[in-house]
Structure formats: structure tokens, C-alpha cells
Amino acid sequence: MVATNLENEYKKFEDLINSYLTVDQSEIVKKAYNFAENAHGDQIRLTGDRFITHPLATAYYLAELHLDYQTLSAGLLHDVVEDCDVTNEELSEIFGEDIAKLVYGVTKLTEVENVSEIKWEENTQTHSLAEAQTLRKMLMTVAEDVRVVLIKLSDRLHNMETVDPLPSERKVKFAKETMEIYAPLAHRLGMWEFKWRLEDLSFRILDPGMYKKVAKLINSKRKNRDQYIEKAVKLLADKLDDEGIKSEVKGRSKHLFSTYKKILAYEKENKTIDEINDLFAIRVVVQDVKDCYIALGSIHNLWPPLGGQFDDYIARPKDNMYRSIHTTVNGDNNFQIEIQIRTSEMDQYAEYGIAAHWKYKEGSSDDSTFDKKMIWLRQLLDWQREVPGDQEFVDSFKTDIFNDQVYVFTPNGDIKELPTGSTPLDFAYRIHTDIGHSCIGARVNEKLVPLNSVLKNGDKIFIVTSPSETGPSLDWLNPNLGYLVTASAKEKIRLWFRKSEKEENLKRGQFILDKELAKLDLGLKMKDIVSFTEYKNESDLLNNLGNGYFSINDLIRNVDIGKYADSDSIKLPVIDRHLDKVKVLGVGDLTTRLAKCCSPAQNYEIMGYITRNRGVTIHDKNCSNIENEKEIDRFIDVSWGLNETLYSVRIYVEAIDRVGLLKDITSLLSDQRINISGSLTENRDDHSYITLKIFIKNTIQLYSIINKLENINNVISVKRIN
């Protein structure tokens, strides 16, 4: 950055802080800038810019959040202790204890980060330890003074924006850490603006090819969608204005990484990007809460709402204090529009989270309001202390804290927050470990439900416990049975079993091994089984299997089904079962055919040509017909689906006969995208004996299918047969 640019950037920063700080406060911030500029001197970043540009950018992002002068000063000074031999005592003497403490907090976080970077490069195990140390330190820092983490997030945002000069491995490590720790932490603090920027910057580094494809895909559809949304925005704004509601109505576009996640989810359901209803959406900002609900009625009068697509986060705020009404409506021409309705204050909080409400304690701030917003962190620190292992802590942190959340009620009406997909058993363990261990049933909204039922927003849950301490079941740890989602609950169960006697664990481990491997009929000997694991002997394997530390899934996924499958296994391109065609990515539901002029082969680059009445023709990218084609706007980017080997196996199902049994079995296999190539059913003495020939990808998929089939009503047993 040349001097003139630095002067311009500082002038922008100066104008911004002068707009909301007092004269005395602005002078302290400017004093911090001058100190940092002198301390960093001629230090140069890898980008070629003077080093001072980095703390200036960090402080500018903080000023955009209208944070207090101490936070801005600490943002400017955050690297001087580490990089310039300035002591904390000097800072305290010059700028006061509060600013020095903030700088010290950022410095300590940076030290943990640097240790993590060294350990990251050593091996996976020490990486988990280092990552856990970073996470624990980060959470404790949020609890002590959230401003330290806000500085760190701003520091990370600018570093990600200027990460390109780093060596490739360090760049990937940096982006991965940002995606796994910093972006989710910004989300948990309600800082949507920071979250999406960090995610998109990381996405660009971690998967540059897909990043470009998604960007191109969105841009290709932006014009038509923007025209539609523009009309919808005007229509809605006029409607609200006619009804006397002062509002700001604006279109909102999905960001790249969130669009990518949406595309992946839709592909699993055989849907195309055209069916994603919230790539573009509308936000309505009104003056007060009453107007939110009046606006909601007006919107539903204008366009009919879609069932199951409504959330009221004003009545029930998210745990990070996010408040808004979400509704999805069927707009003109059957185009689905997601609409968010909120007040100006809610809108500020939705974008900037906890930072939007930070007020310096010498002012008129309400500390109780701030503490309420941080209750989730206090609760988190309490139950995270129960997770001793570093890897378990990391898993728990990512699963339980940073996944999307569902909000449910205790019988007393208290709100509890759990990751989406959680079950009554997860809820029981969130209430108390002993309640989880003694859980034998659950009532959701006054109805008795299975313990692996998926909870929904607003559910009221009552846990049924046993008076005798029977303890948890190891089946609860089987991911195929769907009893638990939260890593913290799983770890509590493992701890319970670790306390059991080793002899009991050995017996239990042997029982589990015999029972589960019998379903696969692989004829494995014990020495073969041990070889599929990292264990050196049978005793250690069985002990850890018996206490829940080692999962049968971890063993099975290492077994190559190809050695045991039937002889008619096949290797083929991924087939779209519904359309019976070679899958080509990028064409949605359009019919495809291979061009005869060049007969494109798998693994060669291809290009799609949109014909007038025969869908999309797939050409080799070097085909001469493509080079001579003048209507270039009819070309689209496409790529082959992945090749996969499918193995032929037979499974045998024994069940008590009932109406719809075979339909339930075949429907489950269809939902799991399993191809059935043959079946045979026998009925004897009110029992059905069904043999199915199916194609599967690997052993773990076969085991998962068997587990799921066992859960069908009236099914007695399921196993593979030779």
C-alpha cells in the first residue's frame, strides 16, 4: 500500500471514529495509531504493504461496529507487544490498564494460535490438542471480556483478506481454522456480517474450483432473479405504505458458501438450484415490534404462505439473541420468496450481533442485558468442563455449539437450545447427566415418542426416568440408530462405561463384536479384525469396544466389502435412477445425450450445448463443432458425475408378516438410494422371510442399511448372506 493510500485509509478511519466518539476519546485512539505506527516502523507484510495497514484495517472493522475507544485503541496496538518488543507495562502506563488488558488478551490468544500452528504441522493427534487449547482459551476469553474476541475476529478477517502471499499449506491451514473456529464463533456471537465474510474467504481457499462454479452459477441467474425481486420489493413496499406502515423493504442475496451448502442439500434430494427458494430473499425493516406482526399479516394477504416455513424468533429469540420473523411465501408465478421481518434494532443486531449492543460500562449500559445475552456461554463453560479429552472437546464444540439450533421447552417452560436433529435423549443429557443415564422414555407435547425422535422448534419435553440406576445403553452410541446428536451426551455415556470393570467391558465388547459382525456374515477371524484397527491386541480392542471408546462403525468402515461381495459387482458412472441417464453435473433436470460427432468419454473435459428441442447435448470440449458454433450463449458449463463401484450383496430379512411390510422395506432402500436388483419373499406361520439382492458402495453403507431395516416395525432380524 503506497503512502497516499495509507493516508486515505487513515482519513476514512478518522472520519468514522469522529462520527460517534467524543473529542477526548478520538484523541486517545489517534494517539494509539501514532504509537503503533512508530512501533512497527518499517515492518513490511508479505503483501508488500507497510505493517501498520493491518492494525489500521483491524481497527476500522471495529469502528464500523461502533465499538468503544478502548477496543479501537487495542485493535491498533494488538501486535506491538508480540512484534515490537513493547511491554504490557509500557502500554498500561501510556494508555491505561483497560486498554493494556485488552492488548494482553489478544496477545495471549495469538500465542496459543502460534503453538497450534506448530503442532498442526506435526501430526493429527497433536493438532487436536492444539485446536482444543485454542478453543478453550477463546471461550474463556469471551467469558472474561468479549471485546478481546471481537478484536481477534477483526484481525482474522483482514488476515483472510490478505492471505494470498502465504505458502499454500499455511494458507489452507489458516482457512480451515477460520472455517472451523472463527466463522462459527462469529455466528454464535450473532455477527452475521463477519460470519459470511469469513466463510466466503475460507471457501475460496479450501475449494477454489467450486467457489468459482458457485459464483458463476449465481451470476448467471442473478439478472432474472433480480428483476423478479425488484418487482416484488416494490409491490410489498407499496402495500405496506398504503396500510400506513413505515418500512424499508430490500432484496437480500445468499452468500457463496451458504449457497454451496444449500446446493449440496438439494442435490441429495434430487433437486436443482432453480428450486432453492432463498437464494434471493426480501427483508422488511419496520419501526417497532407491533409493526412486525402487522407487516406479517399484510405479506400473507399479498402472497399465500407455505406450510412449515414460518419461524417467530421475536417471540422466541435464538440463544445468541437473534430476533426476527421468518416466513416463506408463494409469490407471483409460483416463485417462492423467503421474507424476514424485524425492527431496525433487530436488524443491527442480526448483522453485528453482540457488538451492536456493546456499551462501555462508564456509560448508561445495562449490564444485566449484556449478561443475559452471554448466558449461553456461561452454560457452555459449565458443561464443557465435563468433557476431559481434547478430541472429544473439539468434536463437542463443533457439533453442539456451532450447528444450527432447535429451541425446545422443559415442563416448567424454560427454553433449552440443542443442535438441529437432536433427540429427547440429547435433551435429557443436556438437563443433567443422571437424567440421561436413567432415561427410559420421553413425552413430547404430551405424546409418548421413541428416544430417537427428532425434536422440532417449540416442542415441550418431559423425560421419563427409571427409579433403579440401570445406566445407559451402548446402542445409544450407534450412529445408525440415531439416538444422539450431541457430542457431549456421547462423551458422558463413554465416561460411564469407562468406569465399569475391565472384565465386564471385555465381555460386553465380545458380545457386541459377535452380534454386529454376524449381521455382515464376513467370516472374519480375530487377527483379521484387530488388523483393521489401530489396536495391537485383542484385549485392548474388546475393552475399548465394551466401554464405548471405540465404535463398531470405526472397525467396519475399514473392511473392504469388495473382498466379500458377490461376483457380479459393477463399476459404472453415477446413474440418476429416476431418469436412467449418465449424471452430468450442471444441467439440472434437462434431458442429456452424448454428441455423436465426438462421442465424449469419461474423464475428458466436456461442454454442454442447449438444443432447441432435445435438451442438452454433451460434447468433448475440443470438439470441432463447438469451435465453429456461433451461438455461444447456448453453451453451459457441465462436468461428469463421479464414477463409483457398486458391490452386489444379498440381505435376509425375517419379520412378523403384516400389510405394507415389503413396501416399507423397499421404500427405505429407495430413500437411501439403494438399487434392488432382485427379491424373493416366503411366508410361513405368520412370518415373512425376504431375500433382497442390492448394490452398495462399501461395508459401512451395508451395515447402516441393516441397522435401519432392523428398526422397521415387525422386523425381527436382518443379516447379509453368502
Which terms would index this structure?
alpha+beta; Hypothetical protein af1432; Beta Polymerase, domain 2; 23 strands; 18% strand
In short:
α8 (124-144) crosses α9 (146-161). The protein contains 28 helices and 23 strands.
Give your account of this protein's structure:
This protein has 722 residues and is α+β, with helices and mostly antiparallel strands. It has 6 domains: 3-206, Hypothetical protein af1432, CATH 1.10.3210.10; 209-354, Beta Polymerase, domain 2; 376-497, Beta-grasp domain (Ubiquitin-like (UB roll), Roll); 500-559, no CATH class; 579-640, no CATH class; 643-721, Alpha-Beta Plaits (2-Layer Sandwich), CATH 3.30.70. 49% of the residues lie in helices and 18% in strands. The chain has a 5-stranded mixed β-sheet. The radius of gyration is 29 Å and the shape is globular. The protein starts with a helix and ends with a strand.
Total number of domains = 6
Q: Describe the largest sheet.
A: 5 strands, mixed
Cα(first) to Cα(last) distance is: 70 Å
| Averaged pLDDT | 80
CATH-assigned homologous superfamily of the largest domain? Hypothetical protein af1432
**Structural Rg:** 29 Å
Low-confidence stretches: 115-129, 359-366, 571-582
Count of individual helical segments = 28
Q: What does the secondary structure layout of this molecule look like, with pairings?
A:
Elements lengths: L2 H16 L4 H18 L12 H12 L4 H9 L2 H4 L4 H8 L1 H24 L3 H21 L1 H16 L6 H21 L3 H15 L1 H35 L4 E7 L2 H13 L11 E7 L2 H14 L2 E8 L12 E6 L5 E8 H9 L14 H7 L1 H10 L5 H12 L3 E5 L5 E5 L4 H8 L1 H5 L1 E6 L2 E3 L11 E5 L21 H12 L3 H19 L5 H6 L6 H9 L5 H5 L13 E4 L1 E2 L4 E2 L1 E2 L6 E3 L11 E5 L5 E5 L3 H5 L6 E3 L1 E2 L2 E14 L4 H11 L3 E10 L2 E10 L2 H12 L4 E7 L1
